[in-house]
Amino acid sequence: MSTIIEFKNVDKIYKTGDHILKAMDDVNFTIDEGEFVVILGPSGAGKSTLLNLLGGLDTVTSGEIIVDGSHVEQFGDDQLTSYRAKNVGFIFQFYNLIPNLTARENVELMKDIVDVDIDALSVLDSVGLKNHANQFPAQLSGGEQQRVSIARAVAKQPTMLLCDEPTGALDSKTGVLILTLLQDMSNSGNTTVVIVTHNAILAEAADKVIRIKNGQIESIVINENPKKVNDLEW
To answer: Which residues of the chain have pLDDT under 50?
Structure first.
């Protein structure tokens, strides 16, 4: 597999008055195309900052972020907007669906963002929700809403899916369904999946586990034989 993501000596510093917070401190790692990656660490370790930098939602103080050969840290505002639209699918703990649009319409919103043919019914079918296409978010369970958000994220065929505690608001059974879906998307070889979580159990299913503490990489472990999400003891 070829490397698709590279962080090189990345620093991110936030200043509030005289207070300085180094959220990223000389961070280095690579992620290969199609990998299922879990980023672990306690609250405040820098996990979400890392994800925001990778997703183009925030900018580095210094260092390089290279995605698919492009230096994201050098992008201007217009380039970042295009990068977020075309390269990145975001999946958050809370689903951010438009409440007055159906599941199908929420997915079809991606047509306004990228120039890609989107078959919303086919994408919803891939997450097991074709029969719920005409329902509104309020008519769906939490797990179903999260699956709609995944369908919406993958509909534009992004280079990578960035997931920030994607099962944090779900019960364990539904969470396993969501994580299995994400692992399957990674295993298809077309999508690189990066999940930020505090749940160490998921590490056993990852191709690569990156542990962060105090804004620094604590360890990087490659699993030669990752488990299926369904086989984990939750």
So the answer is: none
CA distances to 62, 132, 162, 204 from 49, rounded to whole Å, are 14, 34, 12, 23
The token pair at 30 is 């690579």
Contacts of 135 (CB under 8 A, 6+ apart): 102, 103
* Beta strand segments in 41-169, E: 62-67, 70-71, 88-92, 160-164
Q: How much is the pTM? A: 0.90
Between the alpha carbon of residue 199 and those of residues 38, 41, 76, 86, 173, the distances in Å are: 9, 9, 35, 29, 15
Element containing residue 15 per DSSP (H, E): strand 3-16
Domain ranges for the chain, please list them: 3-231
Question: Using the 8-state DSSP alphabet, how is residue 133 labeled?
Answer: T
Which pLDDT value is given to residue 217?
97
Helices (H), strands (E): how many in the chain? 6, 10
Helix (H) or strand (E) holding 27: strand 19-32
Task: Write out the CATH class of domain 3-231.
Answer: alpha beta
Per-residue pLDDT at 1: 67
- CA dihedral over 115, 120, 122, 127, signed as positive or negative: positive
- Backbone φ and ψ for 104, nearest 5 degrees, come out as -60, -45
* Residue among 87, 100, 88, 53 nearest 73 (CA): 53
Could you tell me the two tokens for 174?
């539904």
